[in-house]
Amino acid sequence: MEHVDLLVIGAGQSGLSTAAVAARTGWSRPLVLEAGGDTAGAWPSYYDSLTLFSPARYSALPGHPFPGDPDRYPTRDEVADYLRTVAKSLDADIRTHAPVTAVRPTSGDAFTVETGNGEQWSARAVVAASGAFTHPHSPDLPGRRSYAGRQLHSADYRSPVDFEGARVLVVGAGNSAIQIAADLAPLARVTLASRAPVRWMAQRVLGRDIHWWTRYTGLDIAPIRRQLARLPVSVLDDGTYRNALEKGGVDRREMFNALTEEGVIWADGTRETVDAVIWATGYRHRYPYLTGTPALDDRHRPLQRLGVSTTVPGLGYVGIEFQRGFASNSLRGAARDAKYVLTRLRRAAPRGRRPPSATSPADQEPSHEPPQRPRGRHRSDDVPPRRRGTDHLPGRDRRG
Fold this sequence. Notes:
Blueprint: E1 2-9, H1 13-22, E2 31-33, H2 76-89, E3 93-95, E4 100-106, E5 110-115, E6 120-128, E7 150-153, E8 167-171, H3 175-184, E9 189-194, E10 200-202, E11 204-205, E12 208-209, H4 210-217, H5 225-230, E13 235-237, H6 240-247, E14 251-254, E15 258-259, E16 263-265, E17 271-273, E18 276-279, E19 304-305, E20 308-309, E21 315-317, H7 331-348
């Protein structure tokens, strides 16, 4: 059985971010196992019109600047191509078509990792960086199984062409719901259905993108993840999407109570025939390869604090929503979380069996303007563990 010091599960944005900072945190060349055949994560499967809500300059991995205008908002295909390019340049052993089926803690502070191909590895540390956008979630409302119209999750939506002239409900109030509704508006009759109204947030404030301000004020890394998780979903917009919805006649209604064979029953009791329902209701993280280990609770959620397992030494996570702060589970935040997790895992390695340091742990990721101001004790490890999930918030999307 081959032995590696660090094994990363997943070669999407979280896995590549982890591999990118491995050497900076003292780990030797990591092994990255990807179930699919691509190193772009779920990005190639998203809808055609998807763009990041954060500028390119804030969406790059350490040491790998995004090509082109740093102030533009990259498209789906640009992000996928960027991740593929990064994967080729990393000092990491990345293996595709290697679906991890089991991670088993063993004696001697190590893990045995198995794939569906029958391969096995022994690893000193394992980082689970998969599953953030591969398990779509949608509510099981009354009548849903009897509805004869078209139903699909936003994960399966591609373009408005197939919905021309149709009556479509888009369920959700987050970024994906708004982008899809705006995309459909010129060709279909669209209504947004959500439990809470859409809350708009200005993309630019005082002439600068909001991400400049979150970095300048420290909100990106501030230890307020529990408070952030309780906030309602907000949609960043410079006016483009709001205008598109108004121009296309898209309205918003309180969430319907049930579905019928022909359509829906609204909260006021009225019935309406609809042709299609698109569920932009987010995703739920899944770690099937950890089933049967002490890593998960009885609801299959990871027992972790700030991305470090509290029950299995040597196990970490990258890509969990609000894992450490506002930018977790996004391109701009995954590398910071990975750096923290890998540093903690390395410090916790048994004395005399720590991985060799490839570079100085003091190496820092490239900084973006503006420089950080001192903020006192804004330390993520001062935050108590979050006990309340965010799956109840429809449409929450942390990709960009």
